[in-house]
Design brief:
By secondary structure, the chain is mostly beta strands. It has six domains: 151 residues, Immunoglobulin-like (Sandwich); 229 residues, no CATH class; 100 residues, Immunoglobulins (Immunoglobulin-like, Sandwich); 102 residues, Immunoglobulins (Immunoglobulin-like, Sandwich), CATH 2.60.40; 100 residues, Immunoglobulin-like (Sandwich); 101 residues, Immunoglobulin-like. Helices cover 15% and strands 40% of the residues. It contains 15 helices and 45 strands. The strands form 13 sheets. A four-stranded antiparallel beta sheet has the order 7-8-12-11, with no helix packed on it. The chain has a four-stranded antiparallel beta sheet with strand order 10-9-13-14, with no helix packed on it. A four-stranded antiparallel beta sheet has the order 15-16-20-19. Strand 9 and strand 10 form a beta hairpin. Helix 7 packs across helix 8. The longest helix has 17 residues. It is flat, with a radius of gyration of 46 Å. The N terminus is likely disordered.
């Protein structure tokens, strides 16, 4: 089924997934804390497979091979990220596997083999996870298959060939690959489906479980065969897919090449699975690592993780100090970073333990993971850890001078006690402040376990002279009473004209000015006065005494109350220059000044039409907004239809979004207007905003189709003025034409008259000016009815729509 890839590559760089840096085989029965170290008998590297563990008849267990829920999509993605962290897409080349995506068509279910898989754009990790789940093939198996066939999992330079032949499916040793199966998704699915075919008909293939099989060493038949008793179906499937078994030369150089008769496919599968995921057949010793071992006050805190591949349950971890058992606890803390190694639902294997009562000095700490089931206890790590003792330690984190005041802070600990100790601050060698380092410093307690948090100090001292000074911090040794220097800083007393900063100079709304910033005089912690000049003329002066957050953090000792803010209305439209002057307080006579240009808003109105549409016969409704940059007042509006003014109004109604779109102008700048006298057809409707200040009127137009459809019909009179007479009078207009239309009159459902609605009616010219006044009708019918009579008038439609009728009942004289 597949070509056998050469195994001459150097030892794989990626060994992290289920690998120990070192493991000790330890007797599993009768285990006590006192015997773990003495019973350790052998040491071997567990980050790489060893040939002694390879069983050609049991390469991988059925349980591991056919586990379709071995890894989730996110776990596979994390694995790919870790496998090739340095992979970057080459110019013109395909993406790295961790970044690869493919648009796949939906795949129908294959009865007894694989479930259906939905189509769509999918990452490589999603393809692997979904195919494994649908076909019941372990995602770990698919990852190993991809690597042993093309090396695509760990490569830093993927090629198109690797993706086309990803799992080696339909690539026999005796013929070219079948292009029908080219492509990453096709290859992964075809391989998984093929393994399910092997499983579904185990006696239909050349290699079968439960019997001896003669298996070639190499495609060259002269190299001979080896009789292998295949113990399970998963192993049989691997041999059907890659029909060679490794010879002694291939096994003796497990991470390299053997001889001319060596083949490597099944050897590499077993080796890679072992390196990445632990034993393919189970029965493995625990795995894990010690991430840190930190010494503190009479204690050592050790952290890491430990798991047994034979179970998902937490296991015990034992700690030995200087060869003696100290304690054990369960490795059951949740560690999300373990998902990529152990699976998304198998992350509760972390441990953090503090060993107390440890004397000062150097100690040897060994951490063991206690085995469950087959295998042996594993030594995770042995390291030397020194519990501190001796003279004080600490820092002078910061020292600064504001005016004549020195501010300082830091921390101090005597390793022989967890009590707070004394700290002395010296300026140029002269002690100026002695205090206790008892302030809370959680950051110190975190890195100095066992000592607690209360070892910080902070303070001030007045009386700093001009110039540069050396500030030193000293901690008092509790046992000897001797002061030890723990930190030093060089500081210079600041002096000169004020520091001035401008955060903003702008006009936020018509005729307004906003200026804000901060200023500090280095010679004083007091307030600085700020003067403002607009276009060369004095405007005002204020005190810079507002609060600016974190100002003291940047200029320690001066405080946060040095901000200024000026808001001023009545500024004329146009461009201006504002000069800000900070008045000097201390030594010298130089003030600080900064000039900024700004412009108040000006220009033509901004007019927008939100909606313009027919509002019925002869009417168009229009709505929108208009804002003039020069004023917050409502804009006067004029509305035209085909260039003719038909209405005026004001953009003065509220629309909440306008206050956000035009900050400072408010929400009352919307308009809604109904325009009358609109005739048939499409019209150009314009909303015109009248300009105030700079700029000119603004017109925004939109094409609008007038009303169309059925006629409008109204009966003004239905009466019997004399014996045997029926009088019918009214008007009718069809929105599709300005011309007069016909009106048919029926008496008791019998046609009685057909007349034109072409008579003048003055009010129509006012209400429907575009249609004119000639749309009225009147007729008197004689001798066509008597007694109770149903009178109906029909307005005959023109263009779109249908005829319209109005009926009334009348008693004819």
């Amino acid at each position: 089924m597949t070509r056998d890839r050469d195994g001459s590559a150097s030892r794989p760089r990626f060994r992290a997934t289920l690998a120990l840096l070192a493991s000790f085989a330890v007797a599993a029965s009768g285990l006590t804390l006192g015997t773990i170290v003495s019973e350790a008998t052998t040491t071997q590297s567990a980050s790489a497979a060893t040939a002694a563990g390879f069983d050609p008849g049991n390469i991988i267990s059925d349980a591991n091979f056919y586990n379709g829920s071995a890894m989730s999509g996110s776990s596979v993605q994390s694995f790919l990220n870790s496998a090739a962290p340095s992979c970057k897409q080459a110019s013109g080349g395909p993406a790295c596997l961790k970044n690869f995506t493919q648009n796949m068509s939906a795949i129908k279910a294959v009865s007894g083999r694989c479930a259906a898989i939905a189509g769509g754009s999918k990452s490589a990790a999603t393809v692997i996870a979904q195919v494994g789940a649908a076909c019941g093939i372990s995602q770990k198996v698919l990852l190993v298959l991809l690597e042993k066939e093309q090396g695509i999992v760990t490569t830093s330079k993927p090629t198109s060939y690797m993706y086309l032949h990803a799992t080696g499916f339909a690539c026999p040793d005796t013929a070219p690959c079948d292009p029908a199966y080219y492509g990453f998704g096709q290859q992964v699915y075809a391989a998984a489906l093929q393994f399910k075919r092997y499983q579904a008909s185990p006696t239909s293939w050349a290699y079968q479980a439960g019997r001896n099989n003669a298996i070639l060493y190499n495609p060259n038949g002269k190299c001979g065969t080896k009789t292998v008793y295949i113990k399970n179906q998963a192993t049989a499937g691997l041999y059907i897919y890659t029909p060679y078994t490794p010879n002694a030369a291939a096994l003796s150089n497990l991470y390299g090449t053997g001889d001319s008769c060596s083949a490597y496919g099944n050897r590499n599968f077993w080796r890679m699975y072992t390196d990445w995921f632990g034993s393919p057949t189970g029965g493995s010793s625990p795995i894990g690592s010690v991430d840190s071992a930190t010494a503190g006050y009479r204690q050592i805190t050790v952290s890491g993780w430990a798991a047994d591949p034979d179970t998902t349950a937490p296991i015990r971890v034992a700690y030995y100090l200087d060869g003696k058992g100290k304690s054990t606890d369960a490795a059951d803390n949740t560690r999300s970073d373990l998902a990529s190694r152990l699976g998304a639902n198998n992350t509760a294997h972390g441990f953090t333990t503090t060993l107390t009562g440890v004397s000062a000095g150097k100690h040897n700490l060994c951490t063991f993971a206690i085995n469950t089931g087959a295998g042996a206890n594993s030594l995770l790590n042995c390291r030397d850890v020194t519990v501190p003792s001796g003279t004080p330690m600490g820092t002078l984190d910061a020292a600064s001078v504001a005016a004549d005041t020195l501010s300082f802070r830091g921390w101090a600990i005597d390793p022989d006690t967890n009590a707070s100790i004394s700290v002395q601050i010296r300026v140029d060698g002269k002690a100026v402040s002695t205090l206790t380092a008892n302030a809370k410093r959680a950051d110190v307690g975190k890195v100095k376990p066992g000592y607690g948090d209360n070892h910080g100090y902070t303070g001030t001292w007045k009386g700093v002279a001009g110039g540069t000074h050396t500030i030193t911090a000293w901690a008092k040794d509790t046992s000897s009473g001797v002061w030890k220097q723990i930190g030093s800083k060089s500081v210079k007393k600041p002096t000169g004209y004020p520091w001035l900063a401008v955060d903003e100079v702008a006009s936020k709304s018509p005729g307004t000015l906003l200026a804000r910033g901060w200023t500090i005089d280095p010679d004083s912690t007091g307030t600085v006065r700020v003067h403002f000049y607009l276009d060369g003329k004095a405007l005002t002066s204020i005190a810079a005494d507002g609060t600016k957050a974190n100002l003291n953090a940047s200029y320690p000792g001066y405080g946060d109350q040095h901000a200024y803010r000026l808001e001023r209305p009545g500024i004329s439209a146009g461009k201006h220059t504002l000069c800000i002057i900070a008045i000097n307080v201390g030594a010298g006579t130089s003030n600080a000044s900064i000039c900024k240009s700004f412009s108040t808003p000006t220009g033509s109105p901004k007019v927008g039409i939100d909606s313009a549409a027919s509002a019925g016969l002869g009417k168009i409704a229009i709505s929108g907004s208009a804002v003039d940059p020069d004023t917050v007042s409502a804009v006067a509006m004029t509305y035209t239809v085909d260039g003719k003014t038909v209405a005026t109004g004001s953009a003065n109604t509220a629309k909440a979004s306008l206050a956000t779109t035009y900050p400072g102008y408010g929400a009352n700048h919307a308009f809604t207007q109904t325009l009358s006298g609109v005739g048939p057809g499409t019209h150009t409707v314009c909303a015109i905003g009248k300009n105030t200040g700079g700029g000119s009127n603004t017109s925004t137009c939109q094409k609008v189709a007038a009303a169309t459809g059925s006629p409008t019909l109204l009966l003004d009179e239905v009466s019997s003025p004399a014996t045997g007479q029926v009088k019918v009078r009214g008007w009718a207009i069809d929105p599709d034409t300005k011309d007069a239309i016909r009106v048919h009159v029926y008496l008791n459902d019998t046609a009685a008259a057909s007349i034109a609605a072409d008579q003048a009616k003055a009010s129509l010219a006012t209400t429907y000016s575009a249609f004119g006044s000639g749309h009225a009708f009147s007729t008197t019918l004689t001798g066509k009815a008597s007694g109770s009579t149903k009178v109906c008038a029909f307005a005959i439609n023109t263009g779109a729509g249908a005829n319209v009728s109005v009926c009334q009942t009348l008693t004819v004289k």
